[in-house]
């Protein structure tokens, strides 16, 4: 890989790190993790989300009980101010990353068409 | 998203587009697509690969016949000079993109740990 590619990648890393979206995300992440009960609640939420995503990806059936449990956990974390703010910050960061990827992947898209539709 | 993030993304797009890896990939891609028999052979190979990947992702069983068919198609395209060179160029481009992503995703990795292992 040419040094130009590395240079611009490291520059992007720096810009991401100093962006409002990332610094806000970091602040809220630290806030939630500094509060033991918030951290446990958030980790539990994450575990349930990931388990369901994995089942979905594997084409496994998700039971009504699992759906109900997931909905209850979402409702719980949404009522927690720090966690819900963290989740909003994560959403914004994801959108930034998606935007960056769309721009960066344009040369390959030009070659192969829309990603996943080759 | 701040203009800094857009600026650096567009700069990276430009650097990727003018990289040796991308220009070589584009050249070989055009070469294969300009040759009707090579194009059909390559598209057939791609279709088989994608079908197997999708089955694997869905946790579906891949039959010995499908494995054999895939191996035969790989052997066939590897003997075709333009296609095998295109596949090598694709591999190199993938490695560049993976390297860039590793660098760009470092800020988020610092927060969440190794991606996929949250
Ligand atoms: Ca295509
Ligand atoms: Ca972690």
Automatic annotation (TrEMBL), chains A, B:
InterPro entries: Com_YlbF (IPR010368), YheA/YmcA-like_dom_sf (IPR023378). It comes from the Bacteria. Belongs to the UPF0342 family. HAMAP family: UPF0342 (MF_01526). This is UPF0342 protein D0469_18915.
């Amino acid at each position: 890989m040419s040094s130009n590619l590395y240079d611009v990648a490291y520059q992007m890393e720096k810009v991401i790190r100093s962006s409002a979206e990332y610094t806000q995300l970091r602040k809220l992440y630290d806030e939630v993790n500094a509060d033991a009960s918030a951290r446990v609640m958030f980790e539990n939420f994450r575990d349930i989300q990931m388990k369901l995503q994995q089942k979905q990806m594997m084409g496994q059936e998700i039971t009504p009980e699992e759906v109900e449990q997931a909905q209850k956990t979402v409702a719980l974390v949404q009522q927690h101010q720090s966690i819900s703010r963290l989740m909003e910050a994560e959403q914004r960061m994801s959108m930034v990353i998606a935007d960056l990827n769309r721009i960066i992947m344009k040369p390959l898209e030009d070659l192969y068409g829309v990603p996943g539709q080759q």
